[in-house]
Amino acid sequence: MPNLDPALYFDHSATTPPRPEVIEAMRLAMQESWGNPSSLHGWGERAAMAMERARQQVAGLLNCEPEALVFTSGGTESNNLALFGVAQRYSQPQHLIISSVEHASVENAARRLQAQGWQVTRLPVNAAGQVDPQALLQALQPNTVLVSVVHGQNEVGSLQPIAELGQICRQAGVLFHTDAVQTVGRIPLDLAQLPVDLLSLSGHKLYGPQGVGALYVRPGVELQPLLGGGGQERRLRPGTQGIPAIVGLGVAAALAAQELQQETARLRQLQRHLARLLAAVPSLRLTGPAELEQRLPHHLSYCTTAISGNVLVREMSRQGIAISAGSACSSGQQIPSRILLAMGYSEAEALGSIRLSLGRATTQAAVEQVAQSLRAVLLSVSEPAPQPLPELAARLR
User: Fold this and answer.
1) Average pLDDT by consecutive 10-residue portion of the chain (397 residues)?
2) 3-class SS of residue 123
3) Is the Cβ–Cβ distance between 287 and 295 less than 8 Å?
4) How far apart are CA 350 and CA 341, in angstroms?
5) Per DSSP, what are the bridge partners of residue 148?
6) Spatial CB neighbours of 311, under 8 Å, sequence gap ≥ 6
7) What is residue 312's predicted lDDT score, i.e. its pLDDT?
8) pTM for the whole structure
């Protein structure tokens, strides 16, 4: 395996490298806090104290009550617990509203509920991938029980107006859930002010470990657990908690809270610089909001018809640069990005989508190198300029 330069890792929306402080805290937890936190003896008490300290750290990042947080295995489980936890409270199918650009964990959960008889409305988005609050208002029905709209879209970076959407839901007496996996630790979130009932987050998106996350459940909101078992996590997520991972999530959240304002401003500056450089590449088309303040601060997304996104990812990888593609591959066949299709892009454009997501190790020099490499790869696959006829060429000499 060749040496990989962390500065050239432009796939932080997929996962982030755990910080050294996180790794050390997890090592100590495995060494010292390995007891079962449900046990009443000293070893169990030590593990429980470490877990509750982490719960307080995550709550500090979100400005919410620590007791409102349920630890899970990550964003996918949190999203599923939110949707199915609400749905299973009803003996008869009801009405669910999601956006047309949700993460697969929400979209697929909605499809399962639809197969069980639930009515599901998928709100359309504009060309920037954003929901119109008026569309939500018009979609509400007497039997609507839950609305789920992603806060920061993982593929195109669009930020949704969750304050407005949540307020509409609150006035209608409908629960509001947001998948904030991409925004927690990157954008300030104040759950004491936001009209949000359920919020999902994941540790590995904010420089914590993989395999751990949380679901914020506003006090008073009732859910049914997905699993049968013991009474852990207020009976909403039974099973012995993974203390080292939870401790790592807590440390990552505490560090994010300390550095949020400064790091977000730094990423915005690098984002603007990269956007200016890539604006000069004619075969690239920016997707998502043109106003960078309306998108994730670390995120840029593009599409091209000159080359498929997956091929472009591989070409960049050969140069030691990590980016990601929006199109999927199944049984050897590429599948166009459903997010871009929902935003009105053609299948050809949706097959050529890429995402560049910056992080703590990103430097200005790395941004410039990535832009130069992308330009070179795209120029190499562009159609050659038509050659003049021989007699015309002779006259041009």
Assistant:
1) 88 97 98 94 96 98 98 98 98 98 97 98 97 98 98 97 98 98 97 98 98 98 94 93 97 98 98 97 94 97 94 95 77 78 94 97 98 94 46 35
2) strand
3) no
4) 6
5) 98, 177
6) none
7) 95
8) 0.93
With contact defined as beta carbons under 8 Å apart, do 291 and 126 qualify? no
Do β-strands 198-202 and 213-217 pair in parallel, antiparallel, or remain unpaired?
antiparallel
Q: For residue 329, indicate whether it is catalytic.
A: yes
pLDDT at 382: 63
**Whole-angstrom distance, CA of residue 390 vs CA of residue 397:** 11
Q: Which two tokens stand for residue 279?
A: 């604006």
Q: How do strand 213-217 and strand 175-179 relate by DSSP bridges?
A: unpaired
From 64, 169, 303, 329, active-site residue = 329
- Of residues 375, 240, 228, 252, the one with CA closest to residue 304: 375
